[in-house]
Specification:
Layout (H helix, E strand, L loop, with lengths): L14 E5 L2 E4 L4 E4 L2 H4 L8 H13 L10 H13 L7 E5 L2 H18 L7 E5 L8 H6 L17 E3 L16 H16 L4 E6 L16 H11 L3 E5 L14 H4 L5 E4 L11 E5 L1 H10 L12 H16 L2 H20 L5 E7 L2 E6 L15 H11 L2 E2 L1 E3 L7 E4 L7 H21 L3
The structure holds pyridoxal-5'-phosphate.
Pyridoxal-5'-phosphate (PLP) binds next to helix 4.
């Protein structure tokens, strides 16, 4: 009988230890975790300091109802406000994961519109290529075909704008008018639905695994934000993967000068030591909901004292060791080495990204950007071959858009790990190239 997971997977492994940037299986085989799990771990695995605060708070303050304050929560809220959050996002709602935090963001947006006597403003726009989580609503509104299969009849329908994808812009690769093309699409979608019916746009400032670090054309986001503002539509930034330094900024909205009305962070907030996420909003949104007398419900395990303590410790380590400052130069080095070694590789359509979120798009025809057939499951083959080579690469792509691998290692890596990543990616790509005789 299969022990785990629910359905068997090629790359199923038993990991018995993790330390620094490495995983170990039960035979002692060492694997470089080039993805920090699901692009979660920023500070490296096995930090005693974090384990210690988890132990203390589990002993001292095991479980407390989320609305009550605890020293652990107070410390985390102070840490977030003083050192991380943009100054206009003053309100904090904690939950246990990215999907929950995104659900909370949508609820806040809808409640906010209702509290202003605009209950008809209830459409949440999302993007054609996107991933916001695995709950029913998030599965429905995300632009990720593969993760909806078999549930399409039940899931809510996504109302999408096109995800700017410079490599695959319908006008042509890196077309000079790409920005205007995608902004026109945003305007058209708003007009089609009617701004009076739209509550918010939920977006990832940079695609996570759905697209593998796709950046829009320069200037797109700031202009898109203006269009949304002019139409009284909230901007909700899902920084579950990009938050807390991943792209070289505290949050990747900073990169574009964006000021989202609501922002979500997860993964790196606990670095894998805690199951914790945050939904951050402006004062105006919270005030309006409060004045209307609406309830903002909590999840039972939101803001567990030990999760808050772990998250504070993680964020303090990031600051003390100045790890976020290392992300941009490490990312540059990684991209440079990947590009010089693999930029011309026949299977590589593009190597993209910033900081330590790098996507590599794999195609069977580099010139025409033709993907392998979906049945070939190239991404799965790449991940499984990578594990044999001692490296874990994160699978990306949406089924419709494929095959993508993502690199998102902890910020503690050095030259040795960069070389291992470049060597590992080269080996797996050559394996596929030889297998398909390309
Ligand atoms: C951008 C983004 N949003 C939301 C989620 C969902 O987070 P979780 O799996 O913690 O529910 C993910 C997870 O990969 C993500 O990358």
């Amino acid at each position: 009988m299969i022990k785990w997971p629910y359905l068997p997977q090629d790359s199923g492994l038993e990991i018995v230890k993790s330390e620094g940037a490495y995983l170990y299986n039960k035979d002692g085989f060492k694997i470089l975790d080039a993805a920090g799990g699901a692009i979660v771990n920023n500070i490296g695995y096995g930090r005693e300091e974090v384990a210690e605060v988890i132990k203390i708070s589990a002993m001292n303050n095991t479980y407390v109802l989320p609305p009550f304050l605890t020293p652990e929560r107070e410390q985390l809220v102070d840490e977030l406000r003083q050192h991380w959050l943009p100054s206009h996002l003053t309100r904090i709602h904690l939950s246990s994961g990215g999907s929950e935090a995104n659900e909370s963001a949508i609820k806040l947006a809808i409640q906010y519109q209702a509290s202003r006597n605009k209950p008809e403003k209830k459409i949440i726009l999302t993007r054609s290529l996107s991933y916001h989580g695995t709950t029913l609503n998030m599965s429905g509104i995300s632009g990720h075909a593969a993760r909806k299969r078999g549930m399409e009849s039940y899931l809510p329908t996504a109302n999408t704008i096109e995800t700017p994808y410079p490599l695959r812009c319908p006008l042509g690769k890196y077309h000079p008018d790409a920005k205007d093309y995608y902004l026109d699409n945003l305007k058209k979608v708003i007009n089609n639905h009617g701004a009076e019916n739209i509550a918010a746009l939920l977006m990832e400032p940079v695609n996570g695994s759905s697209g593998g670090a796709i950046y829009p054309p320069d200037g797109y986001w700031i202009e898109a934000q203006k269009i949304l503002k002019d139409h009284d539509i909230l901007l909700i930034a899902d920084e579950v993967m990009t938050g807390f330094g991943r792209t070289g900024f505290k949050f990747s909205c900073e990169d574009y000068g964006l000021e989202p009305d609501i922002m979500i962070a997860g993964k790196g907030m606990g670095s894998g030591y805690a199951s914790i996420s945050g939904t951050y909003s402006t004062e105006a949104i919270a005030e309006s909901i409060m004045n209307a007398g609406y309830l903002v419900m909590f999840h039972t395990f939101a803001a567990l004292p030990m999760s808050c303590a772990a998250s504070s410790a993680v964020l303090k380590i990031l600051r003390r060791e100045r790890l976020c400052e290392k992300v941009a130069p490490l990312g540059e080095k990684l991209k440079e080495r990947l590009t010089s070694r693999l930029g011309q590789h026949p299977l590589v359509a593009e190597i993209r990204g910033k900081g330590l979120l790098v996507g590599i798009e794999i195609v069977k025809d580099k010139e025409q950007l033709v993907s392998f057939d979906e049945e070939e499951k190239i991404t799965e083959q790449v991940v499984s071959q990578g594990l044999k080579e001692g490296i874990f690469l994160y699978p990306g792509g949406t089924g419709e858009y494929r095959d993508i691998i993502c690199l998102g290692p902890p910020y503690i890596i050095g030259d040795e790990e960069i070389d291992l990543m470049v060597d590992g990616v080269e080996k797996v790509l050559n394996h596929i190239k030889d297998k398909y005789k390309i």
